[in-house]
From TrEMBL:
One of its GO terms (biological process) is proteolysis. It comes from Tenacibaculum skagerrakense. This is Peptidase S41-like protein. It holds the Pfam family Tricorn_C1. One of its GO terms (molecular function) is serine-type peptidase activity. Residues 249-439 form the Tail specific protease domain. It comes from the Bacteria. Transmembrane segments: none annotated. PANTHER family: INTERPHOTORECEPTOR RETINOID-BINDING PROTEIN, RETINOL-BINDING PROTEIN 3.
Amino acid sequence: MQSKTTFLSLILLSILLINCNTNDKKNNSIEGVWKSIGYGKILKIDSTTYKYFDITNISCLPSKQGNISEVKNSITLKNDTLAVKSGYSFYYYTRANKFQDLCKKNTKDINDPLYNFEVFADTYKEHYAFFELNKINWDSLYNSAKEKINSKTTEVELYLIIQEMIDSLKDNHGSIEPTDEVYEKAEQLNIENEDTEEFKWYGDFQVAGLVADYYLKENLTQDSWLINWGKMENNIGFIQIKAMFLYGDLSLNDSLVKENGFVSTYMDAFNDLSYEQQISKEIAGINNVMNTIMEDLKETKYIIIDVRFNGGGQDVVALEVLRHFNKSRIQIASKKARHYNGFTKKTPIYLDSIKNPYMKPVYLLTSQQSASATDMMALSSMEITQLKRIGSHTNGAISDALQKTLPNGWHFSLSNEIYTDNNDKYYENIGIPVDFELNYPEDRQTFFRSVAEDLEKDKQSVLNAIRKLRNE
């Protein structure tokens, strides 16, 4: 009897070991269904493909897919937690037991205005990071907007209701992008209801171009319409960065660029890439430009970097620029994302270095129009010892923009992250302060006109600030 019991125990033990080995093999695979920690995403991976879905309590919508080879090198698995690297950030996922029923089949009318509004509202309720900072009464705002919507609400009306809601939320990265037709109809309504402005209007690239042309005694710019560089008088280096985006070499079709414009053509090609490919293309592009710039300006007395008219783009581009002035890897900030009623674990952000960085003084010109990724550049610059900031504080739009899509295909975004410096202080809304204040006007066009219509005064105010900082 004893031997039979022992034999049976051995059989059961063998079965358990086989099952454990099978489970271990399964759990060591990245294949399966994964739910993000924060960010409202499902990631489904099989042997050949990956698929991202945006999820709320009432929706699951496909957002991006591709071949697993595009992302495999950016994914690591540890203790049943999936980490996906994108730029300097890691996004974490836990294994889900099953693919959500909402993702399998959508039975809702994707054009129903109330359904689209509820998806928008549910996303904000779950992920917006600044209800408390901006003193938002969510229930009141939500109910007030919902009362305006019914089955007969037009697309233009829905767009205007959502846009008004975003404005009330005071979200620096809040946006809603309907179809071109809806946007144009809404803009026509706004024009009809607005007074005609009598003063001259300047675009950010326009005023930036005027400044670069006036500042540069020796213009060394080549093969770039996003960055101007060269030398001012007295061997002073000058770099003007107009945007933190559009640097990737995407082999764009010339005829499409001519027909649709560069930015539209670029974005179409960009959106066909995986998230990881998007980041790598941008980094490679800006790094190529910066290597040329730093070779041209390596013998200068000091360098001025002008980002006063830069509305942002990709954080990785901003950090790639700063890397050329950094001698060793340093922590520059931390971030956390809204998750349920709290936040994800705080994660550090680092700035890498290059082999032979420019270690002479650097002066970063900022204004209240320096936003988003340019905010990130200014925040990171606080940890670079030879760099000082001049002008006025940045815009304060520091959180990443969480990109989402409504059931009807409209794109929208919101601020879901809190960035802090190494002293745990955050600058959302208030912006990154300067070391020398030039009291630029807060209003965009007033500031642009003050610069464009007296370029000599603008240049001398910057040079005087630098002389005072250098005790000259």
